[in-house]
Design a protein that fits this description.
The protein is an alpha/beta fold and 480 residues long. The chain is built from 18 helices and 11 strands. It has 3 domains: 131 residues, no CATH class; 99 residues, NAD(P)-binding Rossmann-like Domain (Rossmann fold); 165 residues, no CATH class. Helices cover 53% and strands 12% of the residues.
Length: 480
C-alpha cells in the first residue's frame, strides 16, 4: 500500500469539474464565432456583388448563445463522454441550433434578407469547427495532464484492465486515475498504470486523504451485498459513484433503464435498432452516398491497382468469391486478385502435404504465410486495398460499408446460435474485427464482435468504425 500523502490531487486537476465546463464553453464560443465569419466570407466569395448584412449582435451574441444552449442541453459541458458520443452530441446540437435560428429568422421577419447559402455554410462549418475544436482542446489538456477528472478505481482485475485501457485511449474521457483499491492480486497492466492505495476496506480513508470526488467500481465478481455495502459507505463522501457490472455480451448500447417500486428495483430493456425500418433506411442511404463519393474519388487508384496487378501476374483483375450475406443468401464478393491464377489447385496440394497448414486453414480459414500470394497481392493485402472493389457490392445492395465480416458457407457452423444475428444484416467492407486487431484476433472473438455490432448498431458507431479502420490500415496492424 502506498503512502497516501503522495497522492493528493494535483492543483492542475483539483477544480477540473468546475473549470472544464467554462473552458469548453469559451472554446466553443470561439469555434462558433469562427464558423459564422468563415461562412460569411465564403458566401461573399461564392456570390460576389450581392449585399448581405449580418448584425454585430447576431455574430457575437445571438448565434453563439443558441449554439451554447443546445450544447448544454446535450450534456456536452457536464459529462465526460467517449469522443464518438461527443461528435454525436455536437451533430444533434448543431441541428437543433440551426432549426431554432431559422425559426428566429422567420419570427423576426428577416428571411428575405438572409442568405440561404450562408445558413447552409454555417450548418456545415459550425459542425466541423466544433468537432475540431473539441478534439484539439481534449488532446491538448490530455498532453499537459490538465483539467483531468480525478477518479479512484475500486477493482483491478481483467475487466478493470480492459476498461481502463480503453479510457486511456479515448480522447473524450480525460480521467486522472489517482490509484486503485484491490483486495486480490491485480492485473499487471492496472498495477503499471497507477499506484495501489489499499483494499476495499480503505475506501473512506483514501477518499478523505486524497480529496477525490469520483469513484469507479470495476469489480464484476462482487456480490450484490458487497456492492451495496461499497455504495452506501462511499456515496456520502463523494459526488459520484459509478459501478460497472458484469452483463456479459448483452447489447448495452441499446439499453434503457427504468426504476420501479420507488427506485428499489431497476428494469432493463434492450432495443433492436435494426428492426426499425427507418434505421435500416438510414443505414442504406448512408452506404449509397458515402460509397458513391468514395468510388468517384478513388477511381484513379482503382485504375493504377488494376494495371499493377495485370503487369505483376497476368490474369483476371477482379477475384470473385462466394460469401454468405443477409438472410443466408450467397453472393459474389469482389476483391482485387492478390493470388496466383491457379490458387485453388495450389491450396489443395499444400493442405494435402502439410498437416500444420491444414490445421491452420481449418481453424482460421486463412494462412499467415500463404505461398499463393503475388508480389502485388502482398502489398494490397497489407494495406487492405484488395478489398476496395467491395464498394461495388455495397452499391448493389449485397454488402454494407460497416457490418459483420463476410464469411464463406463452411464458416456458418462456427457461429452456432449467433448466426441468426449475422443473417439480420448485410456483411460489411469493414467492421469491429478490422478495428480490433483484425487477423490477430481469435475466431471466437470475431464471432462475438459481429454479434455485438448487430445488437448495438447506430449510425454514429458506423462512422466511428470507418474512422478507426482508416487508422488501423495506415498502421498495417494485423493484416495478412
Amino acid at each position: 500500500m502506498e503512502n497516501l500523502s503522495k497522492h493528493s490531487i494535483s492543483i492542475k486537476n483539483k477544480y477540473s469539474n468546475e473549470l472544464m465546463p467554462l473552458v469548453l464553453a469559451v472554446c466553443d464560443y470561439i469555434a462558433i464565432w469562427l464558423a459564422v465569419n468563415v461562412s460569411y466570407s465564403l458566401r461573399d466569395f461564392f456570390v460576389p456583388g450581392s449585399h448581405f448584412h449580418l448584425s454585430w449582435l447576431s455574430i457575437h451574441v445571438i448565434v453563439p448563445a443558441v449554439y451554447l444552449l443546445f450544447l448544454q442541453i446535450h450534456h456536452l459541458y457536464t459529462r465526460r463522454m467517449q469522443f464518438w458520443q461527443v461528435i454525436s452530441g455536437i451533430f444533434k446540437s448543431v441541428f437543433y441550433a440551426m432549426i431554432s435560428l431559422i425559426f428566429l429568422i422567420y419570427i423576426a421577419q428577416t428571411a428575405a434578407s438572409t442568405s440561404r447559402l450562408f445558413v447552409a455554410l454555417l450548418w456545415v462549418s459550425s459542425f466541423f469547427f466544433l468537432v475540431a475544436e473539441r478534439y484539439v482542446v481534449k488532446h491538448t489538456l490530455g498532453h499537459f495532464k490538465m483539467l483531468q477528472l480525478p477518479v479512484l478505481i475500486m477493482g483491478a482485475g481483467k475487466t478493470a484492465a480492459i476498461v481502463l485501457d480503453y479510457f486511456k485511449k479515448d480522447s473524450g474521457i480525460n480521467y486522472e486515475f489517482i490509484g486503485y483499491l484491490e483486495d486480490n492480486t491485480p492485473e499487471a497492466s492496472v498495477a503499471a498504470m497507477m499506484p495501489h492505495l489499499g483494499g476495499f476496506c480503505d475506501a473512506e480513508k483514501v477518499i478523505r486523504m486524497t480529496g477525490v470526488q469520483h469513484v469507479m467500481v470495476i469489480a464484476p465478481g462482487l456480490s450484490s451485498a458487497a456492492v451495496q455495502d461499497i455504495v452506501y459507505r462511499v456515496q456520502p463522501l463523494v459526488k459520484k459513484v459509478a459501478f460497472i457490472p458484469d452483463m456479459g455480451s448483452l447489447p448495452l448500447a441499446t439499453l434503457d433503464t427504468e426504476s420501479l417500486i420507488d427506485g428499489h428495483i431497476v428494469s432493463f430493456s434492450f432495443r433492436n435498432n435494426l428492426a426499425l425500418w427507418y434505421n435500416r433506411a438510414i443505414k442504406r442511404i448512408f452506404d449509397v452516398i458515402c460509397t458513391s463519393l468514395g468510388i468517384l474519388c478513388l477511381s484513379p487508384l482503382f485504375l493504377a491497382i488494376a494495371l499493377w496487378i495485370y503487369k505483376d501476374s497476368p490474369g483476371p483483375i477482379i477475384f470473385k468469391h462466394r460469401r454468405v450475406g443477409r438472410d443466408g443468401k450467397e453472393f459474389n464478393c469482389y476483391k482485387f486478385r492478390s493470388m496466383c491464377v491457379d490458387a485453388d489447385v495450389k491450396l489443395k496440394e499444400l493442405l494435402a502435404r502439410d498437416p500444420e497448414t491444414r490445421k491452420e486453414w481449418e481453424t482460421e480459414f486463412k494462412l499467415k504465410n500463404d505461398p499463393r500470394i503475388t508480389k502485388s497481392g502482398a502489398f494490397l493485402r497489407k494495406t487492405s486495398l484488395d478489398e476496395l472493389p467491395q464498394l461495388f457490392n455495397v452499391l448493389k445492395g449485397e454488402m454494407s460499408l460497416v457490418g459483420p465480416r463476410p464469411i464463406i458457407q463452411a464458416e456458418v457452423p462456427k457461429y452456432g446460435p449467433y448466426i441468426k444475428d449475422f443473417y439480420m444484416v448485410r456483411p460489411g467492407v469493414t467492421g469491429m474485427w478490422q478495428t480490433s486487431g483484425r487477423s490477430d484476433t481469435t475466431y471466437d472473438e470475431r464471432v462475438q464482435m459481429d454479434t455485438w455490432y448487430v445488437r448495438n448498431w447506430n449510425v454514429w458507431f458506423d462512422i466511428v468504425l470507418i474512422w478507426r479502420t482508416i487508422a488501423v490500415v495506415l498502421k498495417h496492424k494485423g493484416a495478412y
